[in-house]
Amino acid sequence: MRSNRRPYQGPRTQLVVSIDIGTTFSAASVCILQPGTLPVFEEILRWPKQANPDAKVSTTIVQGNHVVSVPRPTVPCDAKAEADEEGWIKAEWWKLYLRPDYLPKINGIEIEIPELPPSRTVNDIFADFLEYVKGQLQVHVTSSHGNGESL
């Protein structure tokens, strides 16, 4: 397949980030625009706690002290004791709280959305998740590109 992309014509190198936040899974990609070169898009394929490379990461988050720590659907068995002891909290399907009430139900289906953790708002959880994704993007760019630190 032939691409219609042209070399980037901007005056300086730029980093472009794309984040897709889904209800159950999310993904992120980057593109480093360098003057005179074709743009190359890279999916983030390594997320903490993944056994195999995958562009998707769970949007379910587990937090201790309001810091995202394990972004996957359940707390691993070996961490359950630590989670209970440290008071970790789990938030899943939180993205659905961002859906405006005025939008019609999808095919009349009523979805029961899990409650948010008591001391957290959807904005808090969204911000924490974006901070987690930002950290992983930073790890990817700095470890995959020779000039990653400067980007």
Task: Provide the gyration radius in Å.
Answer: 19 Å
The outline comes out as globular
**Strand percentage, roughly?**
15-25%
Taken together, the total number of domains comes to 1
Task: Compute the average pLDDT.
Answer: 81
Which structural class do the helices and strands define? alpha+beta
Q: Fraction of residues in helices?
A: 10-25%
Which H/E pattern describes the elements?
EEEEEEHEH
Largest sheet: 4 strands, antiparallel
Give the N-to-C terminal Cα separation: 31 Å
Number of strands: 7
Low-confidence stretches: 66-75
Q: How many helix segments? A: 2
Q: Could you explain the architecture of this structure?
A:
- The chain is an alpha+beta fold and 151 residues long.
- It has helices at residues 80-86, 122-144; strands at residues 14-21, 25-33, 41-43, 57-58, 61-64, 67-68, 89-91.
- Strands 1, 2, 3 and 4 form a 4-stranded antiparallel β-sheet that branches. A 3-stranded antiparallel β-sheet has the order 6-5-7, with helices on one face.
How would you concisely characterize the structure shown here?
The protein has 151 residues and is an alpha+beta fold.
Layout of SSEs?
Layout: E1 14-21, E2 25-33, E3 41-43, E4 57-58, E5 61-64, E6 67-68, H1 80-86, E7 89-91, H2 122-144
Q: Keywords for this structure?
A:
single chain; alpha+beta; four-stranded antiparallel beta sheet; three-stranded antiparallel beta sheet; 2 helices
